[in-house]
Design a protein that fits this description.
By secondary structure, this protein is mainly alpha-helical. Helix content is about 75%, strand content about 0%. The protein has helices spanning about 1-30, 35-45, 60-75, 85-95, 100-115, 120-135, 135-150, 160-175. The longest helix is centred in the first third of the chain and has 31 residues, at about 1-30. It is elongated. The N and C termini lie far apart (about 75 Å). Mean pLDDT is about 85; it is low at about 25-30.
Length: about 180
């Protein structure tokens, strides 16, 4: 009889261990596949990807959302994206962030854009997320950062894709 109890306990323990390992790989898959610098930036900023939720929906601060949107907006420039230094300096100035946090937001913002399935879909998802988080003072901050990115672009004016993104931004925030 004692042998049957031990055998049942071993089967239950094996099943629970199997389920734990199976679920653990699923939970950590999105963040673990990121580059080490992205993981380090996420850790410093306190960003945690939630299970069964898209990475963009996991954004918990409007600052990080603004940084990701500015990164997507910079990548929409037809003649090449401006240097990350311009984006980092703009985030530092407009969001009053320290240099390390601004650099981390730039790195993590680029990764979030990649997770969004492309520049345009990511920009629209990020716009919706920013509206959910806070669209009061951060809308103005976003527009100022996007202005800095546009001014640093190759033409000094928004490209066609950037103009379309600004239209989508205005449509979502209903300012047009």
């Amino acid at each position: 009889m004692f042998f049957i109890y031990i055998l049942c306990a071993a089967v239950v323990l094996g099943f629970l261990l199997y389920r734990r390992l199976q679920r653990g790989a699923y939970l950590l898959g999105g963040v673990m596949e990121a580059a080490p610098q992205v993981r380090a930036a996420a850790k410093r900023l306190g960003f945690h990807a939630q299970p069964n939720v898209h990475s963009i929906v996991s954004i918990h601060t409007a600052d990080l959302c603004v940084a990701a949107m500015a990164s997507a907006f910079a990548q929409m420039d037809d003649h090449g994206a401006p240097v990350d230094g311009v984006l980092t300096a703009s985030l530092q100035k407009r969001l009053q962030a320290d240099p390390q946090a601004a650099a981390d937001m730039t790195v993590l913002g680029g990764w979030l854009v990649e997770q969004g399935g492309g520049v345009t879909p990511a920009f629209e998802r990020l716009t919706n997320r920013l509206k959910q988080l806070d669209h009061g003072p951060y809308f103005d901050k976003l527009m100022r950062v996007m202005g800095d990115v546009t001014a640093a672009g190759t033409k000094g004016m928004p490209s066609a894709r950037q103009a379309d993104a600004m239209g989508a931004l205005a449509r979502i925030f209903r300012t047009a």
